[in-house]
């Protein structure tokens, strides 16, 4: 079974050379965040990921979580690993020190999130959802809710969930029916939620559910949805879990992947009604939930990256061991490992170059989030927030779609051995498949990008981004290294394609919204590929600057070649996607429903 080793060199390169870790140290609260500190944190995280979480991945997949009379029991070893995770302070790494967090930049935490997901995606989902709950309560909860729940959620002693989905309310949350009836200081919640990740388990002493529900007199649709905090155990006067609340897991789903992450049907108020506390104001729950979902969407993007990295490591190691065939043109002589075959190299570089592009985009966005929160200049904060808003659906949609493609390539490199379970390659593919579905499907991300993020400022955030990309394109000129003109040409073509498609979408969306939405998935992928090319070009420039001085010559040369591969083999997709954006919509409604 392949081990997981965190790609620390690339992570540190991206953090320092592309995401501007040093500049973050100038922000209030981050004064002590030096590259040395970040390195030490990542090394410790890498140990936990490689030595504790990764070995549980396969047995967790085989055993899964189970529902017993006492509730959901996590797969063997998970509870002990979670205790270690909490005791070592990983849960609150970037959380607010006011509530016991360590207050490190999100950039540093993002690298750890990648590692947890590479090592064990099922495990990583539990803290991912807790972090979303922390954000929602911190941003919108009363002081009392914050005092009572945040310290335990931040430490990880209690975990959080996100209870949105109901059988009739998936992508369309306006159809939520769970009821909330005011009763004195609190509300009585009743109804059923489905597909709730880590909705119940035995790894922590309490589970804090954030639940969307509707008041009896609430307006129809999304404007009548409120957000409630519903703990599994009510909290006693001393702050510890006391009486059991009327909420339980009715069943857990049997599913394609992430078997060790219990996906629960949750029943609220089967007996006396579950006690829930309003978060923020009545009927304003949906925007609050988006606080949680935006944070979760960025992390699910990092999941796509994490699972792709794990699949790449397994495929690379296998390609170096598996002996099959001879070198091209040789009929005799020694048989060689499959990494010598051109097509296997193509697949490995397709995996590696896209993973590095995703990592760069994900970490650069993480730094933008830090800047958007902490930069002393208000205009700079707004600029970074615009960028984060624009690119959150891209990070989520593009990285998770690539996660599936890359884990599938991982199976391919293993040949038949990849299709059977022993190598682990099949599990990575199965696990990756959920990421383009939950936290808003790729279709929903694409609609958000085209229908809201691009259009709400008439394309100015995108124009700002394209201007930055053009500046990088110019920097690529005038090099005597043969790789750089190729990288420049690839990036230039990508930017041109993105510009044209953007113009088309902006012109079309008001006139014919169906056409723009029919093109939206292609537009999202196009934006992702070009953003990836932009970051790989920046990486190549940074590697060129470092190559002589850093003692990392091999790494830097490989980075430049990988950026060239991306420019030559991935960026041409931008042109095709741009053509598809501009023409594909014409036939989408050409067929009558019965013709499908
Ligand atoms: C393993 C797992 C874990 C999950 N964890 C959680 C959780 O913790 N909490 C939670 O609340 N939910 C959770 N979910 C639910 C998940 O978020 C939903 O499944 C997802 O949002 C899609 O909703 P749906 O399944 O109802 O699909 P539908 O909304 O029915 O969508 C079906 C198809 O139609 C498309 N579609 C629907 N509406 C539109 C539209 N307006 N525009 C374009 N395309 C559209 C979708 O893209 C999709 O392809 C989980 C689901 C799974 C499988």
Bound molecules: flavin-adenine dinucleotide
Shape: globular
Spatial separation of the terminal alpha carbons: 44 Å
Main sheet characteristics = 8 strands, mixed
User: What does the average pLDDT come to?
Assistant: 96
Helix content: 55-70%
Question: Structural class given helices, strands, pairing?
Answer: alpha+beta
Uncertain stretches? none
- Range of strand content: 5-15%
Count of β-strands = 12
Number of helices: 20
Work out the radius of gyration. Answer: 24 Å
Can you describe this structure?
It is built from 20 helices and twelve strands. The chain has helices at residues 8-18, 21-24, 35-53, 57-63, 78-87, 106-119, 121-140, 143-155, 285-321, 342-374, 378-413, 416-419, 425-432, 442-453, 460-475, 483-511, 513-518, 520-546, 553-570, 572-583, and strands at 66-68, 71-73, 158-163, 179-183, 186-197, 206-213, 226-231, 233-235, 241-244, 247-252, 263-268, 274-279. The strands form three sheets. Strands 3, 4, 5, 6, 7, 10, 11 and 12 form an eight-stranded mixed sheet that branches. The chain has a two-stranded antiparallel sheet with strand order 1-2.
What labels would you give this structure?
two-stranded antiparallel ribbon, 11% strand, 596 residues, globular, 20 helices, 12 strands, 56% helix, alpha+beta, binds flavin-adenine dinucleotide, eight-stranded mixed sheet, single chain
Quick synopsis:
The chain has 596 residues and is of the alpha+beta class. The chain contains 20 helices and 12 strands.
């Amino acid at each position: 079974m392949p081990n997981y080793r965190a790609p620390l060199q690339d992570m540190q390169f991206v953090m320092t050379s592309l995401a501007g870790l040093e500049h973050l140290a100038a922000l209030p609260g981050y004064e002590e965040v030096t590259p040395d500190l970040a390195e030490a944190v990542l090394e410790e995280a890498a140990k936990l990921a490689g030595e504790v979480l990764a070995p549980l991945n396969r047995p967790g997949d085989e055993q899964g979580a189970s529902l017993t009379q006492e509730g959901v029991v996590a797969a063997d070893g998970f509870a002990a690993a979670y205790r270690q995770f909490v005791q070592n302070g990983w849960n609150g790494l970037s959380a607010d020190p006011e509530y016991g967090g360590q207050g490190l930049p999100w950039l540093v935490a993002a690298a750890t999130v990648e590692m947890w997901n590479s090592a064990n995606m099922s495990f990583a989902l539990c803290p991912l959802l807790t972090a979303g709950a922390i954000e929602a309560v911190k941003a919108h909860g009363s002081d009392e809710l914050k005092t009572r729940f945040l310290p335990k959620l931040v430490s990880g002693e209690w975990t959080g969930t996100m209870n949105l989905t109901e059988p009739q309310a998936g992508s369309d949350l306006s159809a939520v029916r769970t009821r909330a009836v005011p009763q004195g200081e609190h509300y009585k919640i009743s109804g059923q939620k489905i597909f709730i990740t880590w909705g119940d388990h035995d790894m922590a002493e309490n589970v804090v559910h954030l639940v969307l529900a509707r008041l009896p007199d609430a307006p129809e649709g999304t404007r009548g949805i409120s957000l409630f905090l519903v703990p599994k155990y009510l909290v006693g006067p001393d702050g510890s879990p006391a009486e059991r609340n009327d909420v339980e897991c009715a069943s857990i789903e049997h599913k394609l992947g992430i078997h060790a992450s219990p996906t629960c049907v949750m029943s609220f108020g089967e007996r006396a009604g579950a006690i829930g506390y309003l978060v923020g104001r009545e009927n304003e729950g949906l925007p609050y939930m988006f606080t949680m979902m935006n944070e979760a969407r960025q992390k699910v993007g990092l999941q796509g990256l994490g699972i792709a990295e794990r699949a790449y490591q397994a495929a690379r190691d296998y390609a170096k061991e598996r002996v099959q065939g001879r070198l091209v043109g040789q009929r005799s002589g020694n048989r060689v490992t499959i990494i010598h075959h051109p097509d296997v190299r193509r697949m490995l570089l397709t995996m590696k170059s896209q993973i590095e592009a995703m990592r760069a985009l994900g970490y650069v966005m993480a730094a933008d989030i830090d800047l958007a929160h902490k930069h002393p200049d208000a205009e700079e904060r707004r600029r970074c927030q615009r960028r984060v808003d624009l690119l959150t659906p891209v990070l989520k949609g593009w990285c998770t779609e690539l996660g599936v493609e890359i884990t599938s390539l991982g199976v391919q490199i293993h040949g038949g051995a990849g299709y059977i379970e022993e190598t682990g390659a099949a599990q990575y593919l199965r696990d990756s498949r959920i990421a383009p579905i939950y936290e808003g499907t790729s279709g929903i991300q694409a609609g958000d990008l085209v229908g809201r993020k691009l259009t709400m400022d008439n394309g100015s955030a995108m124009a700002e981004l394209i201007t930055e990309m053009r500046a990088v394109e110019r920097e690529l000129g005038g090099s005597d290294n043969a790789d750089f003109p190729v990288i420049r040409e690839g990036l230039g073509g990508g930017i041109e394609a993105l510009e044209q498609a953007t113009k088309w979408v902006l012109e079309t969306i008001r006139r014919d919204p169906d056409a723009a939405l029919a093109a939206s998935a292609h537009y999202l992928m196009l934006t992702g590929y070009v953003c990836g090319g932009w970051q790989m070009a920046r990486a190549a420039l940074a590697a060129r600057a470092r190559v002589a001085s850093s003692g990392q010559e091999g790494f830097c040369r490989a980075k430049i070649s990988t950026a060239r591969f991306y420019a030559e083999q991935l960026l041409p997709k931008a042109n095709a996607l741009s053509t598809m954006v501009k023409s594909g919509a014409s036939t989408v409604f050409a067929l009558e429903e019965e013709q499908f």
